[in-house]
Write the C-alpha cells for this entry.
Amino acid sequence: MRIVEIGPAPIHEIEYLDAAPGGGSQLRRLPLLRGIVDGLPAELDGLLIASDLQGRARAGDGELRLLGEALAAEYAMLAELEQVPAPAFTGVVLAGDLYAAPGADRMGATGDVREVWRAFAGGFRWVTGVAGNHDLFGGKQEQSRFERESGVHLLDDTAATLDDLRIAGVGGICGNFNKVNRRAPEEFIKAIRRALARRPHVLVLHEGPDGGEPHLRGNPEIREVVARSETIVICGHVHWDRPLVTLPTGAQLLNVDARAVLLERAG
C-alpha cells in the first residue's frame, strides 16, 4: 500500500478547545484531510488516522468531550451525508496522546483515553494503534480487560493483521523508563527493528522519525531504521507543516499530530 497524495485543503474541520501556553484555553480547529492510496483490502473503503487529539470539543448537550470522541461522532455525521465512507467499512489508526484536562486548560495532562477508543470501536470496523506518553488505560487489570474488548487492537511491540493489513506498533517515547509510556532509547530502537522484521504494511509509532529536513522535527535514529523499509510509518508527538514525506529509500512518513487523515483507494 502506497500513499499517492494527500489533498492540501481540509474536507472538514472540528472546532475545539486546547490548553494555551500561558494558562487557560484557546480555540483551535482540527482538520480532516483526504488522501489517496493505490490500494486497500476489499473489506475496507477507508482508513481514518489521527494522533495528538489533546483537546476538548463541546457536545450537543454542552458537555466538553475528548476531541477523539468528537471526531468519531463528526465522522459518522459526514458518513450519513455520504461525504466519507461508512464507519462500518472504515478502519481507524490512532497514534497516541488522546487526553486533555477536563477544562482543556492545562498543558501536558495525562489521563484515561479508553472512551476515545471505544467511540471508534463501537461503530467503526476496528480501531488499532499505540499509546502516547500522556495516555492511560486504567490500572493493569483494567487495561488487560480493555485490550480484550471487541474491535480494539492496542499495539506495543506487537502486531495485528486486520482485513489483510499487517499493522505493527511501538507505543510511547524515548526517555526515563521510570515514567509512564517511556523506554530507554536503545530499547525503543530495538522494538522498532522487531516491528519492521514482521514486514508490516503500516508501522504505528507515537514518537516518530524526523523528516530529513530541519523543520520536520523528530528522532533521527528512528529515521535511519525505518528508511530501510518500504512501509508507511504513522506518527505524531511533534507537528509538521505538511503531513506526508517520502524518503529517497521509499519509506513514507505520515505525521498526523493534531490532524486527521482519511485514506481512500484511488478511483
